[in-house]
Specification:
The complex is a heterodimer of chains A (391) and B (263). Chain A is mainly β and 391 residues long. Chain A contains 2 helices and 21 strands. Chain B has a single domain, classed as Lipoprotein localisation LolA/LolB/LppX (outer membrane lipoprotein receptor (LolB), chain A), CATH 2.50.20. The chains are: A mainly beta (391), B alpha+beta (263). The interface between A and B is large, with 47 and 36 residues.
Chain lengths: 391, 263
């Protein structure tokens, strides 16, 4: 495959390579951090994502190379680069296959993603967990009329990168980075397997998925020196995602069951997110669309001290202004139904300067119960302002 | 009773029936014209094209969108359409897949490239603006014959052509219009002009078609469409390029996987 990319980069082929660039400038502000604290109160980032694609003058092949890198005013580990994608996709009439580094998203809900498991979360990038590290994979897919069967072989496990301890959103205990433990005897070399059958029938979209291999979510093992080492256990996970789309209503469900190997600290559990979104189009004869959404998170571990969303409700509104700048926002509150903990979240964006985009993301931990898993975020309210420029 | 009043009574008795007969004639004629126009634009099987959208606000300030699309004709159902957005560049790579079903709600999926997510979306919002333009989703959707009730109004000259003028009333739910008046040229049954009347039955928009080109198989496409909103003073121009009726497309090119691999 590398040979083909070498070929693609040869001068004659370069002209056929589609090149796109995205420059992002970001400021992060933590108004709750006291001036005397050693934690970061504000920081700035400049990031560049490039995307090179080519079809090699073929009807069946697409090659993609998508590197990303950023520099941070806070330096150190916050400077960060990743190959998000480097792959070759072959498509035929009723099947396709991809080899290389790629990203995959599974799921339907908005306030959390349970079923999505293929890629490791990039914790250095975003709080919402939607930024993912590239994952090495071979995927073969059989396409049917209204459904698809995907089979995955996933070598090359990637550890989660943790925020440095002076970051307000960092975990509240010291982590020994680069000293991860594994459930698999061959550690990081373990090859994971996954499969998913998905499709639609009328108003129903469904997906049934299976994953067997090293968990992307680590456990933490206390060390005698007071630090913690991440341990990635072997898991077997089943997932289901469902959406019903009917008129102005979207009904959504994600559910997983995760079973652990015997040495794992964690015991087997099930978790689910279910909810609905109702949209009022052209509210009061304007161009404005207003959506109301609610999603309930539940987890069989039922331990609010360790599981952030064990019995929590997200309720929010989504607004689309349908103007030429495509202005929109999503605002909502996560509330723990077992204690008083709640946090407010806002995402808003608007097109500026023709085709740049400005985005505001903010989260405030309004009330945090000391026994809740998110208690360490008490003072970590944040405002993130980003400008993305496209070339 | 004098003979003259007998005559009036006779006329009075039959007048409603006469006008009813006229009305049903007008409806039959309207449907006939719409059917002919539909027939002449059937059988192309697949097509693709590129489109540039120029949005103008009341002050004349412009913004642009670029979209390429592929369409598959489906026997006995609405068309399948795949649209890929190129500009504005903040939405580039975003793609939309629509399976239209005439009077029934369409099936619609949106692909968001930043998180590689395909989302099933509601197609309930037929009357909402497409990408902030003066075109509503329903103006750009697959125009199936059974989506409207038709009525022939009159013959009229329209620019360089002689036209049939028909009224059509949307039968699908959630339309933003009470009715539309369509001018079709009598030689080729091409749409020359459409007037859109809003929910209060006031003239909302006019769409003018121009620069028609004929493609293999005898299919006509307007290279330019101009939508003017009379109530807001805004307008949107659509320019069409690279119409292709030759490169074969098949059902497998119109699914959720295809959304993710458009270049």
């Amino acid at each position: 495959m590398l040979g083909i990319f070498a070929l693609a980069s040869s001068l004659s082929a370069w002209a056929d390579v589609d090149r796109q660039f995205e420059l992002s400038l970001q400021g992060q502000f933590f108004p709750g951090i006291h001036s005397g604290s050693s934690d970061v109160r504000e920081q700035f980032f400049a990031g560049l994502e490039a995307e090179f694609t080519s079809d090699f003058d073929s009807d069946h092949l697409i090659g993609t190379f998508l590197p990303y890198g950023r520099i941070a005013s806070t330096g150190g580990e916050m400077n960060h680069a990743d190959i998000r994608e480097l792959n070759l996709l072959y498509t035929a009439d009723n099947w396709e296959a991809i080899g290389g580094i790629s990203r995959v998203f599974w799921g339907v809900t908005e306030s959390g993603h349970l079923v999505d498991i293929i890629n490791q979360t990039d914790r250095l990038e975003g709080f919402d967990g939607e930024d993912k590290l590239g994952q090495t994979m071979v995927r073969a897919s059989r396409l049917f009329d209204q459904s698809v069967l995907d089979l995955y072989v996933l070598p090359g496990f990637r550890e989660r990168a943790f925020l440095p301890s002076d970051q307000p959103l960092a975990l509240p205990f010291p982590i020994e980075d680069g000293k991860a433990l594994y459930g698999a005897r061959n550690g990081q070399q373990h090859v994971d397997l996954a499969a998913r059958f998905s499709g639609y029938r009328g108003i129903i979209d469904y997906g049934l998925s299976w994953f067997n291999g090293t968990s992307r979510d680590p456990e933490f093992i206390a060390q005698s020196n007071g630090t913690f080492r991440p341990r990635y256990p072997l898991i077997n996970q089943w997932g289901l995602d469902l959406q019903l789309t009917r008129g102005s209503w979207l009904w959504k469900l994600e559910a997983i069951h995760r079973a652990f190997e015997t040495d794992a600290l964690t015991s087997d559990f099930s978790a689910g997110i279910s909810g609905a979104e109702y949209t009022m189009y052209e509210l009061a004869n304007s161009l404005f669309d207003l959506g109301l959404l609610a999603e309930w998170h539940v987890d069989s571990r039922d331990d609010r001290a360790t599981v952030p969303l064990q019995n929590d409700l997200f309720a929010g509104i989504r607004a689309s202004f349908n103007d030429t700048q495509s202005s929109e926002f999503l605002a909502g509150v996560f509330s723990d139904l077992d204690d008083s903990s709640s946090s407010f979240r806002l995402e808003a964006s608007r097109r500026v300067l023709g085709d740049a985009r400005i985005t505001l993301e903010a989260q405030s931990f309004i009330d945090v119960d000391p026994n809740n898993a998110i208690s360490y975020l008490q003072d970590s309210d944040f405002i993130v302002l980003s400008l993305q420029l496209f070339f | 009773m004098r003979p003259i009043s007998v005559l009036f009574a006779f006329i009075a008795l039959f007048l409603p029936q006469l006008s009813l007969a006229d009305a049903s004639n007008d409806r039959a004629r309207g449907l006939e014209i719409a059917t002919e126009a539909d027939q002449r634009d059937s059988g192309w099987q697949y097509q693709s094209s590129d489109m540039e959208m120029i949005l103008r606000n009341r002050a004349g300030k412009e913004s642009r969108r670029k979209i390429s699309s592929r369409q598959l004709e489906v026997e006995g159902d609405g068309d399948k359409t795949l649209s890929l957005f190129h500009e504005p560049r903040d939405v580039r790579g975003t793609a939309m897949l629509t399976f239209s079903h005439g009077l029934e709600p369409d099936d619609q999926w949106l692909y968001l490239p930043a998180i590689k997510r395909v989302k099933r979306i509601s197609s309930r919002n037929r009357s909402g603006p497409f990408m902030g333009s003066e075109f509503a989703f329903e103006d750009l959707s697959s125009q199936e014959l059974d989506k409207y009730d038709y009525r022939y109004l009159q013959d009229e000259s329209c620019g360089a052509y002689q036209c049939y003028v028909i009224e059509r009333i949307p039968l699908y739910e959630n339309s933003g219009y009470t009715r539309q008046i369509v001018w079709l040229d009598q030689a080729e049954f091409r749409s020359i002009k459409i007037e859109y009347y809003d929910r209060k039955d006031e003239l909302l928009k006019t769409l003018d078609f121009s620069d028609y080109q004929e493609y293999p198989g005898g299919y006509w496409r307007a290279d330019r469409m101009e939508m003017t909103n009379h109530q807001t003073g805004k307008s949107t121009t659509l320019l069409w390029f690279n119409y292709d009726f030759e490169t074969p497309l098949k059902s497998g090119d119109f699914n959720k996987n295809a959304l993710k691999r458009l270049l």
